[in-house]
Amino acid sequence: MATLLWKTPNDYTTAILTKSNNEILTLRVGDFITFKGRPDGARIDAFYPKDSDPRGPISLEYLPWRPQEHRWATVVFGVRGNPRRLIAFPVGAPHYGEKVDWDTVEHLNSGICPQFQS
């Protein structure tokens, strides 16, 4: 099973994804990534820590790219907050959010986010 752990304690902007095949990927706030279900990519907007567990984040919050419209999706919030949250393992296992196959996470465009085309 893939794990997402902090790169540096108390730095909630960078996490290390270790995939099931032992491939290591550094993920940072602002990176442009893809994963199963989001082939057009998404921007990492935040990692959420759990004060009682310093190993890694509970989740990763993202915003999808809309390539046909050359823009980022609209930010949404529901009763439980932003529904675009990927649950991170092992710390986030019992929490609310999307379950994703972390082994499918990759950087797109060398991790550089697209810009608006006006």
- Please count the beta strands (DSSP E, at least 2 residues each): 9
Kindly, what is the distance between the CA atoms of the first and last residues, rounded to a whole number of angstroms? 42 Å
Form type: globular
Tell me the fraction of residues in β-strands, as a range: 35-45%
Task: Please give the domain count.
Answer: 1
* Rg estimate, integer Å: 14 Å
Task: Give a structural overview.
By secondary structure, the protein is mostly beta strands. It has one domain (3-109). The chain is 0% helix and 37% strand. It has no helices and 9 strands. The strands form 2 sheets. Strands 4, 5, 6, 7, 8 and 9 form a 6-stranded antiparallel β-sheet that branches. Strands 1-2-3 form a 3-stranded antiparallel β-sheet, with no helix packed on it. Strand 1 and strand 2 form a beta hairpin. The protein is globular and about 40 Å long.
SSE map:
Blueprint: E1 3-6, E2 14-18, E3 24-28, E4 32-35, E5 38-48, E6 59-66, E7 71-72, E8 85-87, E9 106-107
Antiparallel strand pairs: 1-2, 2-3, 4-5, 4-9, 5-6, 6-7, 6-8
